[in-house]
């Protein structure tokens, strides 16, 4: 039985155990946990929860299935997730989640003096509503701009004197670049971004060209912020208001490190949520860097690097784990934004890795390819093509007989 001692975790294991005991009262968790003792010592014996299994537990009976942890009359909000899956939350769940988001946003330098454009979606999903409540807790003036309509956002930011913005990275860059092309200097001072893989160099460019300080957090739609930047040292601090574990994505065992050749998967337990408990849920998100060294900000939790890919996108080549998503950042370091795909074959019983890239060979390609090989820790060749086969980042032809 694996133990958590000496492995990377964050938050209170005691609180995680208590919420798991509450979750056991739901039919779904009663089936999944069975006769396993719910305790600190047996924590890693509890099964890991995948998104698929979470949804399956909702399917047996509409609308909440076998995962509802409170009487239906205690449900204050219900959001709709892909599936579709109905996501119930009590008033206490909402308040705890809003507090979690508020703490993350404060870490980005937002205060009660800020006027903030909240640009994520409000309809059906939780993002817009909960971020608005989080800003209320901080005391900021909330401008519920929602998604899309770039020009409307530019006009309102300019006319209202908006100083802060919550946005996906691509929308923030598009908005700032569009305003610049119109000859406008927006009053924005700070931005909090989330939700997408992106070029980390963009934050430096945004500060340099637009004077906007960018802070990033990583989270999921199920539990909210999981890790957030402090701005003093690289990486994102794991939050202490969840119980967070790092596991080997292949074995499910807890791990103490993460690296490009041995990425770790993030697992979360929501220690506050009652309506639909989340116990040891696999996020599917991979990191290849973690440090427990002291940080200048004083926060004691470990810092993780950026998300480099998803569990379904990894494979083992020549004994090394390969994360296709990590290549995007390498290409961006060389000024390249090229669609690509990794193809694994096994001619003559030996693994071979090919990087397919759309277009013709760009200037400086040998150096970029060498950097790719060093990042993957596996040698690979390049093939330039007119188009890729499908949308997947990885094609493993070793499985084809």
Question: What would you give as the CATH superfamily of the largest domain?
Answer: ANL, N-terminal domain
CATH architecture of the largest domain: 3-Layer(aba) Sandwich
Mass-distribution shape: globular
Q: Ranges with pLDDT <50 over ≥5 residues?
A: none
Q: What's the average pLDDT?
A: 90
Structurally, how many domains make up the residues? 2
Oligomer: single chain
Keywords:
401 residues; alpha/beta; Rossmann fold; GMP Synthetase, Chain A, domain 3; five-stranded antiparallel beta sheet; 27% helix
Characterization of the model:
The chain is an alpha/beta fold and 401 residues long. It has 2 domains: 90-311, ANL, N-terminal domain (Rossmann fold, 3-Layer(aba) Sandwich), CATH 3.40.50; 315-399, GMP Synthetase, Chain A, domain 3. Helices cover 27% and strands 25% of the residues. The protein has a 9-stranded mixed β-sheet with strand order 5-4-6-7-8-9-10-15-14, sandwiched between helices. Strand 17 (315-317) and strand 18 (320-322) form a beta hairpin. The longest helix has 17 residues, at 91-107. The radius of gyration is 22 Å and the shape is globular. The protein starts with 8 loop residues before the first strand and ends in a 5-residue tail after the last strand. The mean pLDDT is 90.
Write the layout of secondary structure elements.
Layout: E1 9-10, H1 13-23, H2 27-33, H3 51-58, E2 75-81, E3 85-90, H4 91-107, E4 115-118, H5 127-138, E5 141-143, H6 150-160, E6 164-167, H7 169-181, E7 190-193, H8 201-210, E8 213-220, E9 224-229, E10 236-238, E11 243-247, E12 264-269, E13 281-287, E14 290-291, E15 303-304, E16 307-310, E17 315-317, E18 320-322, H9 326-333, E19 340-345, E20 352-358, H10 365-376, E21 381-385, E22 394-396
Parallel strand pairs: 4-5, 4-6, 6-7, 7-8, 19-22, 20-21
Antiparallel strand pairs: 1-11, 2-3, 8-9, 9-10, 10-15, 11-12, 12-13, 13-16, 14-15, 17-18, 19-20
Helix pairs in contact: 4-5, 6-7, 9-10
């Amino acid at each position: 039985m694996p133990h958590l001692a000496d492995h990377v975790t964050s938050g209170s294991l005691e609180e995680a155990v208590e919420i798991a005991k509450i979750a056991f009262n739901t039919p779904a968790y009663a089936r999944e946990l069975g006769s396993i003792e719910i305790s600190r010592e047996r924590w890693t014996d509890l099964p890991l929860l995948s998104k698929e299994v979470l949804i399956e537990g909702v399917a047996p009976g509409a609308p909440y299935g076998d995962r509802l942890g409170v009487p239906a009359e205690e449900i204050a909000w219900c959001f709709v997730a892909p599936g579709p899956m109905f996501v119930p939350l009590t008033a206490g769940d909402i308040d705890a989640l809003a507090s979690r988001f508020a703490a993350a946003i404060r870490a980005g330098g937002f205060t009660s003096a800020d006027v903030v454009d909240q640009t994520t979606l409000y309809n059906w999903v939780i993002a817009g509503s909960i971020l608005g409540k989080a800003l209320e807790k901080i005391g900021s003036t909330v401008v519920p701009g929602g998604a899309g309509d770039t020009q409307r956002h530019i006009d309102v930011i300019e006319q209202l004197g908006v100083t802060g913005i919550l946005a996906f990275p691509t929308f923030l860059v598009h908005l700032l670049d569009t305003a610049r092309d119109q000859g406008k200097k927006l009053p924005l001072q700070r931005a909090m971004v989330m939700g997408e893989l992106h070029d980390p160099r963009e934050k430096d460019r945004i500060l340099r060209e637009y004077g906007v300080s960018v802070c990033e957090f990583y989270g999921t739609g199920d539990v909210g912020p999981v890790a957030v930047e402090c701005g003093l040292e690289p990486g994102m601090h794991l939050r202490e208001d969840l119980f967070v574990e790092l596991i080997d994505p292949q074995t499910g065992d807890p791990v103490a490190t993460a690296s490009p050749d041995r990425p770790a998967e993030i697992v979360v337990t929501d220690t506050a949520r009652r309506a639909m408990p989340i116990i040891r849920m696999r996020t599917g998100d991979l990191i290849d860097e973690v440090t427990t060294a002291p940080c200048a900000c004083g926060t004691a939790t470990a810092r993780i690097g950026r998300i480099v890919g998803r569990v379904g996108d990894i494979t083992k080549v020549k004994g090394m784990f390969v994360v296709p998503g990590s290549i995007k950042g390498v290409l961006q370091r060389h000024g390249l934004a090229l669609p690509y795909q990794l193809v694994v074959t096994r001619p003559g019983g030996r693994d071979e890795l090919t990087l397919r890239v759309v277009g013709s060979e760009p200037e400086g390609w040998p150096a970029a390819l060498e950097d790719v090989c060093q990042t993957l820790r596996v040698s690979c060749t390049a093939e330039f093509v007119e188009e890729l086969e499908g949308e997947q980042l990885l094609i493993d032809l070793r499985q084809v007989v």
